[in-house]
Write a structure and sequence with these properties.
CATH class of one domain in chain A: Mainly Beta
Oligomer: homodimer
Structural class of chain A: mainly beta
Number of strands of chain A: 9
Strand content of chain A: 25-35%
Distance between the termini of chain A: 37 Å
CATH topology of one domain in chain A: Elongation Factor Tu (Ef-tu), domain 3
CATH superfamily of one domain in chain A: YaeB-like
Radius of gyration of chain A: 17 Å
Largest interface: A-B, 66 and 66 residues
Number of helices of chain A: 0
Largest sheet of chain A: 6 strands, antiparallel, barrel
Helix content of chain A: under 10%
């Protein structure tokens, strides 16, 4: 069934994160400001973004392991071993992050955002508008209730 | 400033979408069932996923244009020209989708989901748990109110 090779795709960075998170993400990252420098060649893709109070930021976590398939969520050994696809852990086969941030300011190709859980110099690979999902009574595993 | 080449990264498909959306996404896709076949080598990463009622599915839209930076959102010419980073249009430099779906069933490496806006045979590149954001009074452009 899997004799064929899995397909691969080429991502290109569209910007870079600039912040004070040099070694690790601070616990209070939700209150922290980051700058996203969108590369000039992609500035046209920002037209009108300032009309949104929130945006979804996708990064490529280039310092994350790609060959770990199971973790104790939230780096807490008392949480049950869980597949990374059932978590939002940074380790995963394709280390893509997805975080909704407040869009505080835009100046030309620079976005100022609040609440980004990424290290300084992390490549940014996509930005999307924020989408609300009205989901009644979603079910989560016990460990995720406080996430 | 941008004399250096932008960095590139290699994505690998972790699964495939199987559904009846052969040519286009149906208007009522939110009610439609899709199967996601996770490749066997990534099955370990699914441990415990069935404890979630909803999951976030990320696909690589391999049939989407990558060199379009501005669109009329929702393919409606009466909506103002908008940068793709201010939308969720499938066309974008890195054609990654992000959709929260109901997880209807899991059997081994196969997930049955409801509400996936992807065509048959689209590569899947990541799955994450669903995360709620409690955002008070988010601001959107006028065209996005009904999205």
């Amino acid at each position: 069934m899997e004799s064929r090779a899995l397909e691969k795709f080429e991502l290109i960075e569209i910007g870079r994160v600039k912040n004070d998170h040099l070694e690790q993400i601070p616990d209070d990252y939700k209150e922290k400001i980051s700058k996203i420098e969108i590369h000039k060649r992609y500035e046209d893709a920002l037209l009108g973004i300032e009309k949104n109070s929130h945006i979804s930021v996708m990064c490529w976590f280039d310092r994350s392991e790609r060959d770990i398939q199971r973790v104790h969520p939230m780096a807490d050994d008392s949480n049950p071993l869980t597949g990374v696809f059932a978590t939002r852990a940074p380790v995963r086969p394709n280390p893509i992050s997805y975080t909704v941030c407040e869009l505080v300011d835009r100046e030309e190709n620079n976005l100022c955002v609040k609440g980004l859980d990424a290290l300084n110099e992390t490549p940014v690979i996509d930005i999307k508008s924020y989408k609300r999902y009205d989901i009644n009574d979603p079910k989560f595993p016990d460990w995720a209730r406080e996430e």
